[in-house]
Each structure stands twice: as structure tokens, then as C-alpha cells.
Write a structure and sequence with these properties.
The chain has 145 residues and is an alpha/beta fold. 22% of the residues lie in helices and 20% in strands. The protein has helices at residues 30-41, 92-103, 121-128; strands spanning 20-25, 48-53, 82-88, 110-115, 139-142.
């Protein structure tokens, strides 16, 4: 429901009790990306995050600009320890979300990535291992589709 109409940068009241969030997102839909970003910015005590990418026939990488990277320094996740990202295909917006989470999660312990297709694994791994991380302990684990 957040993806319909005006989407605030943050909710009017933070979700202080929220420590686990699972979201399904179409990375080609700007409003869905903004709604997800709003939820994340409004959840300062988030400890576990699961992101499920919704497949879409038109996976054009330029449909959604770099909204995840525009102001990412002002969004620390000081409690986020575990992240799961599933069904990604490696388009730029998906990679920007992963970059955003790695760069803003100083206590992150593990990020689990499961690509949508098996042939994406090596390409994703090569790109992700060079992303800077706020947490020196963060490990990236790849699972088979």
C-alpha cells in the first residue's frame, strides 16, 4: 500500500519494535523501490532482512535510477546482522540494493544471495566480492537457485 501515491522518505513514526522484515519487490518499479527504502529507513532496530525479487519479463536495467545510492550515507543499519536476497538476476538496481546494505550495516554477519538462475552465480560473485563493507566480519554466501 505504500507504493501507491506519495511515498515519504521515512514513516512519520519509526518502527521501533520491528526486528525482522521480509519484502517482495519488483526492482523495475520505482515506487516499490521507494516504498522499500522508506520501510528500511524507518526500521532502526532491524536485525534480519529478507528480500525476494519479483521476476518481471522486462528486466531493463535503466528503468529505476540509482535511488538506493543517492543518499545512502544517511541510513545506517546499526542492528542488521543477517540479510537474505533471493531470485535476483544481476541487474544494476538489484546490485545497488546489495551495495547499499553492505555499505550501511556495520554489524552485518552474513548476507546470503540466491540468484534466480545458476549461470548468474559467477558473475554476481565477481562483482559482490569487491563491494566495500561497513562490517569487516560480513560474509557473502551464495546458494544455488
Amino acid at each position: 500500500y505504500l507504493a501507491v501515491g506519495h511515498i515519504p522518505g521515512k514513516l512519520s513514526s519509526p518502527c521501533m519494535e520491528l526486528n525482522y522484515l521480509s519484502i517482495r519487490i519488483n526492482f523495475n518499479d520505482k515506487d516499490e523501490n521507494l516504498a522499500a527504502l522508506c520501510l528500511l529507513r524507518s526500521s532502526p532496530n532491524l536485525q534480519e532482512l529478507e528480500i525476494l525479487a519479483l521476476p518481471e519479463e522486462d528486466m531493463s536495467p535503466e528503468r529505476v535510477k540509482n535511488i538506493w545510492l543517492e543518499d545512502y550515507h544517511n541510513c545506517p543499519f546499526n542492528q542488521l546482522r543477517l540479510v537474505q536476497v533471493a531470485d535476483i538476476v544481476g541487474v544494476r538496481c538489484e546490485m545497488n540494493v546489495i551495495y547499499f546494505l553492505l555499505a550501511n550495516s556495520p554489524v552485518l554477519e552474513r548476507m546470503t544471495v540466491r540468484p534466480a538462475f545458476n549461470n548468474m552465480r559467477c558473475e554476481l560473485l565477481e562483482e559482490l566480492v569487491v563491494f566495500p563493507r561497513a562490517s569487516a566480519r560480513a560474509e557473502i554466501i551464495f546458494l544455488d537457485p
